[in-house]
C-alpha cells in the first residue's frame, strides 16, 4: 500500500513496456512510435552533452613563458569555458517562445482543391484553366486594385472579403469589433498568407487603438496580433483572440 514504492516500481517497468511496444507495433503506428522515440533520444543526448560540457576548462600554462606569444595563440593559453549554453539564455528563449504561444497551436490542413476553384477562361475551342478562384474568406488592404483580367491568376470574390474582426481580449474578457490591418501568417501555406486568406488559426494584425491601451513608453498601442479561432467560411464572421 506504499504509494511511493508502487510509483518507483511503475517507473522501473516503463522501459520494459516501451521495449515491448517497439517490438510489437507494426505499420503506421510503429512509424509514429519510432518518430517519437527518436525525438526523445535526441533530446536526452543533447541534455547529457550539455551536462558534460558545462564547465570544461582548457588547461592554462603552468609557468609564465619567457618568449612573447603570437596574438592568434593568446586564446589557447587562457582558461576557456566551453559551457554549451547558459541557463539564462535557455530560459530567455523559452520565455520568448511562450510570449508568442497561440491559442490554437495545431490546425487542420486544407487541400488546394478545397481552397481554390478552377476558373476556365478563353474561347470555347481553346479553354485555359490557369485561373483560380479563392473559396475562403480573404482580407485585402484599403488601397487594393485588381490586376488586369489577362494577368490575374487568383480571383478573390468581393463577397468573401472581410475588413473587421470580433476580437476577444483574454485578460479583460471583453469582445470588440476591430478593423484588420494585415494578415501576418496563415499556417496552411505561405501562398495563402500572401493572398490574405483567413482560415482557422491564421495570425492577423488588428487595430486596437479603440481599446485605449498604452505601451510602456506611454504611447497608444496601435497594432496587435490576434489569432482566428473559428471557421469564417461557415460562420459568416471572424472571431479572434488577441495575443497579449
Account of the 3D structure:
This protein is α+β, with helices and mostly antiparallel strands and 244 residues long. It is 32% helix and 20% strand. Strand 4 and strand 5 form a beta hairpin. The chain starts with a helix and ends with a strand. 12% of the residues are buried. The model has no long low-confidence stretch (mean pLDDT 85).
In brief:
This protein is α+β, with helices and mostly antiparallel strands and 244 residues long.
- CA-based gyration radius: 28 Å
Query: Which H/E pattern describes the elements?
Result: HHHHHEEEEEHEEHE
**End-to-end gap:** 47 Å
Strand content: 15-25%
The coarse silhouette is: extended
Low-confidence stretches: none
Helices and strands: which structural class? Answer: alpha+beta
**Sheet with most strands: strand arrangement:** 4-5-6-7-8
